[in-house]
Every structure is written in C-alpha cells, then in structure tokens.
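wait is this the right file?? whatever heres the structure
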C-alpha cells in the first residue's frame, strides 16, 4: 500500500488544476447556462430546483461581475476538492488511512463525481459536499461514545441534510436512510430529544422550498411528480436499460465491478470494515439507486439522479480494496483501482480533444438542421456567436431596421439559456420568455425582471440549426411580419459545425410574455 500513501493535498491540487484547465476549454452546457439564470434572479426556490446552485454561482462570480465559464463553474470545482478531503476522512474513519486515500482516488475517477459534478456546475455539484458532510456526521454519531459528541453530530446531521436538500430535493433520501438504519440497528437514538431537534433543523432549513411553492401553485412538485409518477403505459425497457447503462458509465464501469465483487462478500458475511458503518452507508446508498431504476421501468429518467447513492458504495468499496490490495501480486482489486484511474484519465484527455478539435459536426443531418443530435455542440463554439450577432445587430440599428432596445425572445429553456448567457446578457438585452411554462421553465420568472414585449414593438430571435425551431411556426399571428436578418456560421477545425439563423420579429400584435401570476398565456 505504500504507493497509495501520497499526500491527500497533492491529489486535490492536481485534480483541481486539471478541472480548471478543462473548464476553460469548453463552453457551458445546456443545464449550466440554465442555472446561470438562477444567479441572475435569486429566489427562495426555482421552477425545477432549490436555490443553492444559483447562490453559489452568484458568490463565485463576484455578484455576476466575472461571468466566464471558469468562474461560473468555480463552485463545483472548489466543491470537488472539498469533497475529496471529506471522503478521505470518511474512509479513514470506517477503516484506516489507506481506505481514505483509496476513497479519494475512487471519487476522482468516477465520471459523475469527478466530471459531471466536478467540472460542470449543477445542483449535484453543490449537493455532494453537503451529502458527504452528512454521511461523515452520521458515521461519527453512530460510533460516538460521549453524549456530547452524539448530540453534536446529530445536530450537524440535520443541518447538512437540510443544506443538501436545498441544493437538490433528493437530499431527503439521507434522512430516509438514516431513519431506516436507526430503526434496525440503533433504536436508542430515538430516545434522544436531539434526534428530533435534528429533524426540526432540516425542516427549518428547507422551509423556503415549501413557502415558495405555496406562492407558486406547487409548480416544483407538479413538475417533478410528472417526471417520476408511474403511468399505465406498461413497462419501458428502453428507458430502464438506458438508465442502467448510464449509471454504470457515470459511476465508472471499473468501480461498478468493485461494487459487485464487494457485494458478494457482504452477502457472504465477510467483514472488511466496521459493520455498523457499512450498514449505514448501504441504507443511504441503495434506496436512491433502486428508486431511480424502478421509475425508469415506467418513465424516462436521467442516470445521474442516483449519482449520490454511489458515494456510500465508494466508501465500502475502498475498504474492500484496502483489505485485498497488493501492488506486487496480480490481484483483481489492485487492477480495478488502477483501471478506474486509467478510465478517467482517458476521458479527461479524449473528451476535450474531441469537443474542441473534431472537424465540423458528427451529425449527418442536412441543412437547415446541421449539427442536430451532435451533443458536443452543446459545449463548444458558442463564443463565435456574440461578435457576429453584435455586428449584425449594430448594422440593423444603424440602418433603422431595429431599435437598440429591441429584446431577445426565447420560447424554450434550451436553447434559450445559451442565447441568454452567450448573447443577450453580455449585450444588456432584455430577454423575454414567450411560450408554454413546460418549455420556458425559469424564463417564466425572469420575465419579472425583464417585463414583456409591448404592442407594436420588435424583437430578435435566434434559431440554432442543431435545435432548429421556425419562429414563423412558434409565433404565427403574433407579429405583423417575421424576417430573416442573416445567418451566422460556426466552424470547428475548419469545417461547418452549425448555423445560427437570426430573425427580426416585427411589430407585435399583442403584449407578449408569459405571466407567472396567471394560468393563461398572454399572446
């Protein structure tokens, strides 16, 4: 094990530098530019998620004065370093220092924790810090012998779970896991008044979510319930296999093999870590993974929903690897650990190269849907749009075709969030959401900031070819005329990757803009 006894600080520094470099190489993704709107319009809660990710973006961009990709992503990058430190201490607590170091390596070689939540800025990026802090507090609580320690860690558990839930609502799975563990293994905690105070702390911390939804027709609950409510359409095997395969890929296939082999030994009652700690980690891991897979049998799901559940499995797997690891022998645990690190290094190398350097587009779709289905275009090339659009806009203003105060109009959160972050916000243009709430999401609320489109005024509309929507169809009968103002070409490595079609929407026939204080759309 001597080869693993490198300073934890060195691992954190190296991985942080890698993340900073990659964060600077690729544009913000669809979700990331969307969460930027949370920072622009802070609130107690938002349409799809609690406010923590927006608060942290606003903090790390110095109140939106530094809005480059690196600064927007900085909360997730900093959190990944903190998380590496916490998981190492969790591993050291359940077994020894070697286990902690292995856990740190596993954390940084998981696609979900190292890239998806370590480079990109998502609610998960923030939640994982509080999730790990809650796990650490729970582990310390169940092993503490001093009443003062038990009380302190109980209270901290309530605080950390509350903050995890304020990052993403499935943080409540931590309480369900802790409660199940207590009911089976540690019923004495139910007699402590501090246990109920801890529950109350969580309730107080997450209360803004409830109060906001009271005032917004429980839209968050309705939105997410529609995503997970079982339907009568029968079993959807395609969704199930897509989610299952996605979970394996996000977790890193080598790590999944570790979890399977570790699970076999747990079933055989072979001890390689503290039994109570293993039980607690399983209760906090398996339910969210199982729930995601169950829902995927009936509804389309996203594999990263279960991502935090793999944290506990990483810790148990680290103890299993430590028990059987030997660098001199050709054993399976050692090979799997090294292979896991190799996989993440391969992805971190090939991914940015493919995104930045692939010539043109991977999509076979013809014009005008050039680039449709090419996921790499979500995170590259957007910097080419702003200068070209600014010139076109200035020319139109100078010629009298458009006024300087003409707003940007969006009909859907994607690609609307990209248009907002990369074009409208830097140019100080108002951005108005006009369409269905199910499509607009947060843009229905940003209308509170930017207002509406008055009668007889003009607006801009940008349609990317990889997600083309014709404004003549979207806004039929709502403007006197819709004119194509120009086409902007994105090139990657010398070849055409995508087009942006620019439109002038002339003289609105009615006041336009979704109003959240009504159940009707204003057109």
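ok assuming it is, sequence goes like this
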């Amino acid at each position: 094990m001597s080869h693993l006894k490198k300073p934890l600080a060195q691992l954190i520094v190296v991985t942080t530098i890698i993340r900073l470099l990659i964060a600077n190489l690729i544009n913000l993704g669809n979700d990331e530019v969307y969460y930027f709107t949370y920072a622009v319009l802070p609130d107690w809660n938002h349409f799809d998620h609690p406010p923590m990710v927006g608060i942290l973006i606003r903090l790390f961009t110095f109140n939106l004065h530094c809005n480059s990709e690196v600064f927007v992503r900085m909360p997730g990058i900093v959190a990944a370093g903190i998380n590496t430190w916490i998981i190492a201490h969790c591993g050291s607590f359940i077994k020894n220092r070697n286990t902690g170091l292995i856990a740190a390596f596993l954390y940084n070689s998981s696609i979900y924790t190292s890239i998806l939540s370590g480079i990109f800025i998502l609610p998960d990026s923030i939640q994982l810090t509080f999730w790990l802090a809650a796990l650490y507090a729970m582990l310390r609580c169940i092993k503490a012998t001093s009443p003062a320690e038990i009380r302190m860690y109980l209270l901290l558990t309530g605080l950390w779970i509350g903050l995890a839930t304020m990052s993403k609502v499935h943080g409540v799975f931590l309480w369900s896991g802790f409660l199940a563990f207590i009911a089976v293994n540690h019923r004495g905690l139910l007699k402590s008044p501090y246990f109920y105070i801890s529950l109350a702390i969580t309730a107080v911390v997450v209360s803004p979510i409830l109060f906001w939804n009271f005032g917004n027709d429980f839209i968050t609950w309705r939105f997410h319930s529609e995503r997970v409510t079982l339907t009568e359409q029968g079993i959807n095997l395609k969704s199930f296999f897509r989610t299952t395969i996605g979970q394996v890929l996000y977790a890193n296939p080598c790590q999944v093999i570790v979890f399977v082999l570790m699970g076999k030994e747990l079933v055989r009652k072979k001890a390689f870590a503290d039994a109570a700690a293993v039980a607690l980690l399983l209760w906090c891991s398996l339910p969210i993974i199982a729930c995601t897979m169950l829902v995927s049998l009936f509804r389309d799901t996203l594999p990263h929903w279960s991502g935090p559940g793999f944290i506990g499995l990483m810790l148990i797997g680290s103890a299993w690897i430590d028990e059987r690891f030997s660098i001199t022998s050709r054993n399976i645990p050692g090979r799997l650990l090294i292979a896991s690190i190799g996989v993440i290094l391969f992805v971190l190398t090939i991914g940015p190269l493919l995104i930045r350097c692939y010539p043109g587009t991977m999509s076979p779709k013809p014009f005008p849907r050039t680039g449709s289905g090419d996921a790499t275009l979500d995170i590259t090339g957007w910097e080419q749009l702003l200068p070209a659009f600014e010139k076109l806009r200035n020319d139109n203003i100078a010629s009298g075709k458009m006024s300087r105060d003409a707003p940007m109009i969006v009909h859907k959160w994607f690609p609307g969030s990209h248009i907002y972050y990369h074009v409208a916000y830097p140019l100080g243009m108002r951005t108005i959401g006009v369409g269905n709430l199910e499509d607009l999401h947060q843009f229905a609320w940003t209308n509170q900031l930017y207002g509406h489109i008055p009668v007889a005024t003009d607006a801009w509309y940008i349609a990317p070819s990889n997600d083309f929507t014709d404004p003549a169809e979207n806004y039929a009968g709502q403007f006197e005329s819709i004119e194509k103002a120009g086409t902007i070409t994105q090139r990657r490595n010398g070849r055409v990757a995508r087009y942006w079609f620019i439109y002038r929407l002339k003289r609105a026939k009615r006041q336009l803009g979704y109003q959240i204080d009504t159940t009707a759309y204003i057109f």
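Residues 321 and 449 are 53 Å apart (CA to CA). so i think its the right one actually
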